[in-house]
Amino acid sequence: MPIVTRGEYWFVKKSKLHGRGLFARKDIPKGTLIIEYKGTRMPPEDLPDIDESKPEAHHTVIFTLDNGWLIDANRRGNAAQFANHSCNPNCETIEEAERVYIRSRKKIPKGAEILYDYHLYLEGPFKKEWLEDYVCHCGSRKCRKIMLDRKIPKKYRHLT
Ligand SMILES: C[S@@+](CC[C@H](N)C(=O)[O-])C[C@H]1O[C@@H](n2cnc3c(N)ncnc32)[C@H](O)[C@@H]1O
Ligand SMILES: [Zn+2]
Description:
Elements: E1 10-14, E2 20-24, E3 33-36, E4 40-42, E5 62-64, E6 70-72, E7 84-85, E8 91-96, E9 99-104, E10 115-116, H1 130-133, H2 154-157
Parallel strand pairs: 7-10
Antiparallel strand pairs: 1-2, 3-9, 4-6, 5-6, 8-9
The structure holds S-adenosylmethionine and zinc ion.
């Protein structure tokens, strides 16, 4: 089934940050549930191993729920999978009655890109490759330079 590309508050178009993005179709008040993050749920142990050799390996459309379960937007996902990451976002995700929504943190003007902080978490010691694999192009003044929820160790900062 093709993915629907517009809803009450949003539409999909090419983004300057990366690929396609979600954009505000009209002014959106603060606190609005803009779109549900849909997909197939699975326990973390069902996550297939990533083939690091593939360029798309780090293109993530998997959302991690508070209880550790995952929502895979590759399977029966909707346009929420097109929302890009920002380190200073105008949206956040919330879980309500076991569903996940992208919600505005502030008033969003018509035409602005809908962005949330992915807060991606990877275990283990920081790997230099992550600087490239998870590089952030959000361009905000507070940009961490990486989409992960961790600081770049001092020894790598000169590379960003
Ligand atoms: C859920 S998708 C977002 C939609 C994506 N733009 C597309 O066209 O499919 C997540 C992927 O988008 C890219 N992405 C999202 N936000 C980004 C950012 N701020 N900087 C660089 N890449 C970003 C990364 O490749 C990330 O793995
Ligand atoms: Zn950033």
